[in-house]
Specification:
Blueprint (H helix, E strand, L loop, with lengths): L1 E7 L11 H4 L44 E6 L5 E5 L15 H9 L3 E6 L9 E20 L4 E22 L4 E8 L6 E10 L4 E8 L4 E10 L5 E10 L4 E10 L5 E10 L5 E10 L7 E10 L5 E10 L6 E9 L3 H8 L5 H18 L4 H19 L1
Parallel strand pairs: 4-5, 5-6, 6-7, 6-8, 7-9, 8-10, 9-11, 10-12, 11-13, 12-14, 13-15, 14-16, 15-17
Antiparallel strand pairs: 1-17, 2-5, 3-4
Helix pairs in contact: 3-4, 4-5
Length: 389
C-alpha cells in the first residue's frame, strides 16, 4: 500500500487559517513541564505510544536515580563545557514539544555544550558515546557550530537506562553539520529524545538516525530555519524486532524563504509484536516562498504480525514554492526479487539478506564514516541471521 502527493511550483493549495500541525499538539512548545497535561494515550501525539512502558517519563514519576557513562572525543579546536541551565546557548534551537521533553528540560542539572569555532574544519568527527548503567537519567546537550565551520558528529547510545533528553544543533550561517545518531541500546532500555536543529542562513544540516535496540525508543527530530537558503537532509534507518516499539516523529518547519528539505526514512520489522511508527510533518508557512521539500517513508515487513504506522503530513500556506511532495509505502518481500536471485544460484537465505541490504544501502552510504558504516552493516547482518534462524 502506498500513497504519494506532489505539488509543483505555482500549484493551487488550500491556505490554512491555523496550522493543523500545531493544533494536533496537546499544548504549544514550552520549557515548563506544567504547561503540558499528563498524556492518557488518546492525544494525537501519543496515540501510538505505549505509555505504560515509558516507566514514568510521561507523568513525572520517573525520578533521576541512574547514571550514564559519557565519553566525548573532540578534535583539536573543539571545546567541551559543562554549564548551568542559565547559559544563553541552552534552549536557543527550540522549546520542548511534549511533556517528556519538558520533563527532561526541567530535570537536568548541568548541560553539556560542544562548540566548533567559526571556519573550523576538523579532520575527524566529534564522537559522543553514552552508555547507560541503569536507572532513570535526564540530559541536555548543545552543539554550537560556528559560521562556515564543517564537522561530522557521531552520537552513540548503548547500555541500559530509562532516559529522556533534549539535544540541540545550532548551525550558524554557511556552516555544514552532519549528525549520525545511533540507538543501539540493550533490549530493556527506554529512550525518549527531542532533537532541535536551528539552521542558519545558507547553512546545511544532515541528520542520519539509526535505531536498532531498546524496548521503547521515541525520537522527535525537529528542524527550523533562522534565515534563507538553509538546507536540511533527514535520513533514518530502523530495524524493529519482536516486542520492540520504535517511534520516529519528525517536523520540518519552513518559515524562511528559499530553503530546502529532504526526508527519507526506511525500516524493517520482524516478529509478531514488532511495532514501528513514523510521523513526518512538513509545514510550509506563508513566509517560506521558494521552498523545495520532499519526504519519504518505506517499510519492509519480514514476518507476520509486525505492524507499522506511517503518517506523512504536508501543510502548505503559500503557492509560491519550487515543489513539495511526500510518499509512504509498506510491504513484504517481492517474490520477483527473490526469484531473480535464486534463479542465479543464490541460496534463499543469502538472497533474503541481499534484498534487505539493498533496501537500506542508500541510507547507510549517507553516514560517510567507514567504521560506523561497517558496524551498522554487521549489526544488520546479525539481525537478519536471527530472523532466518
Amino acid at each position: 500500500m502506498a500513497e504519494a502527493q506532489s505539488i509543483p511550483a505555482g500549484g493551487a493549495v488550500a491556505v490554512a487559517a491555523e496550522s493543523t500541525v500545531a493544533t494536533r499538539m496537546s499544548a504549544p512548545p514550552s520549557f515548563d513541564v506544567a504547561d503540558f497535561p499528563v498524556p492518557h494515550g488518546r492525544e494525537e501525539e501519543w496515540r501510538f505510544t505505549p505509555l505504560e512502558r515509558l516507566r514514568g517519563l510521561h507523568d513525572g514519576t520517573a525520578v533521576a536515580d541512574g547514571s550514564v557513562k559519557a565519553e566525548i572525543v573532540a578534535p583539536d579546536g573543539v571545546t567541551v563545557e559543562t554549564v548551568g541551565r542559565d547559559d544563553p546557548r541552552v534552549g536557543r534551537a527550540g522549546k520542548p514539544a511534549d511533556r517528556v521533553a519538558a520533563q527532561a528540560f526541567s530535570a537536568f542539572e548541568k548541560a553539556t555544550v560542544v562548540t566548533v569555532p567559526a571556519e573550523a574544519v576538523p579532520a575527524e568527527p566529534v564522537r559522543v558515546s553514552l552508555h547507560g548503567e541503569g536507572g532513570v537519567t535526564y540530559g541536555h546537550t548543545v552543539f554550537d557550530i560556528g559560521r562556515f565551520a564543517e564537522v561530522v558528529l557521531i552520537l552513540d547510545h548503548t547500555g541500559d537506562t530509562v532516559r529522556a533528553a533534549n539535544v540541540e544543533f545550532q548551525v550558524a550561517e554557511g556552516a555544514k553539520l552532519t549528525v549520525v545518531s545511533v540507538q543501539d541500546w540493550a533490549d530493556t532500555a527506554v529512550h525518549c529524545s527531542q532533537h532541535n536543529a536551528l539552521v542558519g542562513r545558507d547553512a546545511t544540516f544532515k541528520s542520519v538516525v539509526v535505531t536498532f535496540g531498546g524496548d521503547v525508543v521515541r525520537l522527535h527530530p525537529r528542524v527550523s530555519y533562522a534565515g534563507p537558503g538553509g538546507e536540511a537532509e533527514l535520513y533514518g534507518l530502523y530495524f524493529t524486532d519482536d516486542g520492540q516499539h520504535q517511534e520516529h516523529r519528525l517536523l520540518v518547519d519552513h518559515s524562511a524563504a528559499n530553503c530546502r528539505s529532504n526526508v527519507a526514512y526506511k525500516g524493517a520489522l520482524q516478529g509478531a509484536r514488532a511495532r514501528a511508527v513514523w510521523i513526518g510533518d512538513v509545514l510550509i508557512r506563508a513566509t517560506a516562498t521558494g521552498t523545495d521539500t520532499y519526504e519519504l517513508n518505506r517499510n519492509l515487513v519480514l514476518t507476520d504480525g509486525a505492524r507499522v504506522d506511517s503518517v506523512p503530513n504536508l501543510e502548505i500556506e503559500t503557492g509560491e514554492i519550487v515543489g513539495a511532495g511526500h510518499a509512504s509505502a509498506t510491504g513484504r518481500f517481492e517474490d520477483e526479487q527473490l526469484f531473480y536471485l535464486m534463479a542465479r544460484g543464490i541460496p534463499a537465505e543469502e538472497a533474503r539478506r541481499l534484498v534487505v541490504r539493498g533496501f537500506f544501502a542508500e541510507l547507510v552510504q549517507q553516514i560517510g564514516v567507514p567504521d560506523v558504516e561497517e558496524r551498522l552493516i554487521a549489526r544488520l547482518e546479525a539481525e537478519l541471521a536471527e530472523s532466518i534462524a
